[in-house]
């Protein structure tokens, strides 16, 4: 009980100093809990949606793969309408109705503005059925009754200002058709952002499936008392086993959930990874806080030991304080995490993905994980200072000798740090010289971990040398005040090293990702310049529909237009080894639109009848040479014997591993309705007509807003923009770790000011002004921040350069160091130091001189 009382007294006596450490715990726990609540809420939203929209049993074509499939022919797989009557004859069937559904559509208004979601959610077109009426309610007008009528969901109508009577054009592979809005339907469950349009059944069949008398699936409802599993079995018996794909409501929901779950897992674990970085940085803050608190209470600890307290009791007293810190920070963090999740939901809603707080999901495991992590991490971080406090001897403490300084321990620490750093450098070198990216990535991961730990351990040793160099360049300009700031930073190298290490971690990741991102852009730009001969590239999120293809081909001032299609196939090598793959079918002009180097044969020969090319990796793995014959089984078509006309070099990023053949060869072995629409198209301007051709293509594609035409400059800019957006998102997540690191600098300076109260009073007494005192503290903060930045940026550039060497094995051969970013971050670190020192410097300047001198 005495230990608890002492711990409580000390905790609340230093509550201001504990606050910053508590904020670090709070932020880290909030990020973890916010991530879990956000992803659990999204899963709940989708689970409710899938459960509500899935019929008791779904009958679909055997070849249908799932809702996210990209039909090779551009049209959804279908089954005959006669199957509906067959299903109705099965025992236990209450009702069965045919449904039409397609995600390969684009809906535009009268001004050709895309009505689709901007959040990545699909546009879904289909017929209005009783199964849809389970999850949607017609709130305005009526359901479509003819080919000129359409009904839209209320969310899409609100977002784009649509109302009854407005005209919409729907673009599918079967052509364009227009219809007026006669109805608006609202979701009874949360709509995550999809745009939905409904037509009457004959129109949906003709325009989406290509002909009437077909459905993409059949929704089956069970009679009372008939289980979904039994209903599925009865329908299977009626239709014949294996004839069609049958799924119960649970199986359909599970498949949909799996498709969404993979994406959600990526978001979840990425965000948790950044939370882990914040926790790691927070550890340094907590270690520094308790180390300094222990040092300031040396005499008090000595008195406790002198009156009979054991080492364990002293140790336990510090750990109890850490537990209190962890509990308070974690509890607040859990609450902040729920708020963060709600904020993320609002942000996603503004971006077009509707998430309702009605579905807010806080599982009991979320606060449990947050509390456990926060408390355990805090206690573990405080263990070393607590152990050090327990080692203070009573006599040394009463003489105010401070915590024991073990020279041998410091030497051992430096030796271990150097060994780990050396091992990490060796691992990075091995990764950079690896022959395969897979092997090198393991060495890269090991090198990153080892060098990071090594730099953290050897930080106090590096602090002496690095701080002196920085001081010579920066602090000496400020005369005696600068020299005093330098000595203060060097007074406790361990503390400076730990404070700088916290900032080092975040900036190392920033530098690494900046180098990788810049190198990716530079490599891709270089390859575009060397390889792409086409003037224009036309593509979109969906395959290019035939009517858009025709419009592109008829655009003026073009020398040629190249079609580019991708089809599924199974390739069997001469050695008998088979693999599911894809073949790229293109016009022969593609050989000039994309200049691919061949290691054997001529690329033009791959476009001859019954010929194709393969990549060097596939050729090497299967012992294939030019002139050999592959067996190619086209999905939905025939099996053919195709001769290898060329082998292309896989040391590229564009079309790496592509297997080329002519469109004529593809058309020979695939039925017309199975020929895939173009994935992408290329165009070459006629001599001297580049600007006119570009303007004409832009004008042509105004009526098809789902596609974009880019020249090489546009393409490079788009690439930079995409990578830049990704990096900005990562930097935003890393900002949490940097904020925690800044709190560490603030805490270190605040405690350092308290620790030097008497010294500050003496300096003020002999003539140092408040302004000079504040400047000294600010300069000390700046040099600590620059120390951490220098280590972090240097370490990060090393990681990034190694990662680029691995990417070079995948064709990204250009290493580019983004010096403006690196220099900008380094300079910004100085301002971070200034910001961190504002409060400690202000408090130091307000000290009463006489009281400060009288302080023990």
From TrEMBL:
Organism domain of life: Bacteria
Chief location category: membrane
Transmembrane segments: 269-295, 318-344, 364-386, 411-432, 452-478, 499-522, 729-754, 775-797, 817-839
Location in or out of the cell: Cell membrane
Residue ranges occupied by any ABC3 transporter permease C-terminal domain in the UniProt entry: 274-394, 733-848
Molecular function terms from GO: transmembrane transporter activity
GO annotation, cellular component aspect: plasma membrane
Region feature Disordered, mapped onto this chain: 56-81
Annotated ranges, domain MacB-like periplasmic core: 19-236, 499-697
Membrane topology annotation: Multi-pass membrane protein
UniProt-listed InterPro entries: ABC3_permease_C (IPR003838), MacB_PCD (IPR025857), Macrolide_Exporter_MacB (IPR050250)
Keywords annotated in UniProt: Cell membrane, Membrane, Transmembrane, Transmembrane helix
Similarity comment: Belongs to the ABC-4 integral membrane protein family.
The protein, known as: Putative ABC transport system permease protein
Lineage: Bacteria, Bacillati, Actinomycetota, Actinomycetes, Kitasatosporales
């Amino acid at each position: 009980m005495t230990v608890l009382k002492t711990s409580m007294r000390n905790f609340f006596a230093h509550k201001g100093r504990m606050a910053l450490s508590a904020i670090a715990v709070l932020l880290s726990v909030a990020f973890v809990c916010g991530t879990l609540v956000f992803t659990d809420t999204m899963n709940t939203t989708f689970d409710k949606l899938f459960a509500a929209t899935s019929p008791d049993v779904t009958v679909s074509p055997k070849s249908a793969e799932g809702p996210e499939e990209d039909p090779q022919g551009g049209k959804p797989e279908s089954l005959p309408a006669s199957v509906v009557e067959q299903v109705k004859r099965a025992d236990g069937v209450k009702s069965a109705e045919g449904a039409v559904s397609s995600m390969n559509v684009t809906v535009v208004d009268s001004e050709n503005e895309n009505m689709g979601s901007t959040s990545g959610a699909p546009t879904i077109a289909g017929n209005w059925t009783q199964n849809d009426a389970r999850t949607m309610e017609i709130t305005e007008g009526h359901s479509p009754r003819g080919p000129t009528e359409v009904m839209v969901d209320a969310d899409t109508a609100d977002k784009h200002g649509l109302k009854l009577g407005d005209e919409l054009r729907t673009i599918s592979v079967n052509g364009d058709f227009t219809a007026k809005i006669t109805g608006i339907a609202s979701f009874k469950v949360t709509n995550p952002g999809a745009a939905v349009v409904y037509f009457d059944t004959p129109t949906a069949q003709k325009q989406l499936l290509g002909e009437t008398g077909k459905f993409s699936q059949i929704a089956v409802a069970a009679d009372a008392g008939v289980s979904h599993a039994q209903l599925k079995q009865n329908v299977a018996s009626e239709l014949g086993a294996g004839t069609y794909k049958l799924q119960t409501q649970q199986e359909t929901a599970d498949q949909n959930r799996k498709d969404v779950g993979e994406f959600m897992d990526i978001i979840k674990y990425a965000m948790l990874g950044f939370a882990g970085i914040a926790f790691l940085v927070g550890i340094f803050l907590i270690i520094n806080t308790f180390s300094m608190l222990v040092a300031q209470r040396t005499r008090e600890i000595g008195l406790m030991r002198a009156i009979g307290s054991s080492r364990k009791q002293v140790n336990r007293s510090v750990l109890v304080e850490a537990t209190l810190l962890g509990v308070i920070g974690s509890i607040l963090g859990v609450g902040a995490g729920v708020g963060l999740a709600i904020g993320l939901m609002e942000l996603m809603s503004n971006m077009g993905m509707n998430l309702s707080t009605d579905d807010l999901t806080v599982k009991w495991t979320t606060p449990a994980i947050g509390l456990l992590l926060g408390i355990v991490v805090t206690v573990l971080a405080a263990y070393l200072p607590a152990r050090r406090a327990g080692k203070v001897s009573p006599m040394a403490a009463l003489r105010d000798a401070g915590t024991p300084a073990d020279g041998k321990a410091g030497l051992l620490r430096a030796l271990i740090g150097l060994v780990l750093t050396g091992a990490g450098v060796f691992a990075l070198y091995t990764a950079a010289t690896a022959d395969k990216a897979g092997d090198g990535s393991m060495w890269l991961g090991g090198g990153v971990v080892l060098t990071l730990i090594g730099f953290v351990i050897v930080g106090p040793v590096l602090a002496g040398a690095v701080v002196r160099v920085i001081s010579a360049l920066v602090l000496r300009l400020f005369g005696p005040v600068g020299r005093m700031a330098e000595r203060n930073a060097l007074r406790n190298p361990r503390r400076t090293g730990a404070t700088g290490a916290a900032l080092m971690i975040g900036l190392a990741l920033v530098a690494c990702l900046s180098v990788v991102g810049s190198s990716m852009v530079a490599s891709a730009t270089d390859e575009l310049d060397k390889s792409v001969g086409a003037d224009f590239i036309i593509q979109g999120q969906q395959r290019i529909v035939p009517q858009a293809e025709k419009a592109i081909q008829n655009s003026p001032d073009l020398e040629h237009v190249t079609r580019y299609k991708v089809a599924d196939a199974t390739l069997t090598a001469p050695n008998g080894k088979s693999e599911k793959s894809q073949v790229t079918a293109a016009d022969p002009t593609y050989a000039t639109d994309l200049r691919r180097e061949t290691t054997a044969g001529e690329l033009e020969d791959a476009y001859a009848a019954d010929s194709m090319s393969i990549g060097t990796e596939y050729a090497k793995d299967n012992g294939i040479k030019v002139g050999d014959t592959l067996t190619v089984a086209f999905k939905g078509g025939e099996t053919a014997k195709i001769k290898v006309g060329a082998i292309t070099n896989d040391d590229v990023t564009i079309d790496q591993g592509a297997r080329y053949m002519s469109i004529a060869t593809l058309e020979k072995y695939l039925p017309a309705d199975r020929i895939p629409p173009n994935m992408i198209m290329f165009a070459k301007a006629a001599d001297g007509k580049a600007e006119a051709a570009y303007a004409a293509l832009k004008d042509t594609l105004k009526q098809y807003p789902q596609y974009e035409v880019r020249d090489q400059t546009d393409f490079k800019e788009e690439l930079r923009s995409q990578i830049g957006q990704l990096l900005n998102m990562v930097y935003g997540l890393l900002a949490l770790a940097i904020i925690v690191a800044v709190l560490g600098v603030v805490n270190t300076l605040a405690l350092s000011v308290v620790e030097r109260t008497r010294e500050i009073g003496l300096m003020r007494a002999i003539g140092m002004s408040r302004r000079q005192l504040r400047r000294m503290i600010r300069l000390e903060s700046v040099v600590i921040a620059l120390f951490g930045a220098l280590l972090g940026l240097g370490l990060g550039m090393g990681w990034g350069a190694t990662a680029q060497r691995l990417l070079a094995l995948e064709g990204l051969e250009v290493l580019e160091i983004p010096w403006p970013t690196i220099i900008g971050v380094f300079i910004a670190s100085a301002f971070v130091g200034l910001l961190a020192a504002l409060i400690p410097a202000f408090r130091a300047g307000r000290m009463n001189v006489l009281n400060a001198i009288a302080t023990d």
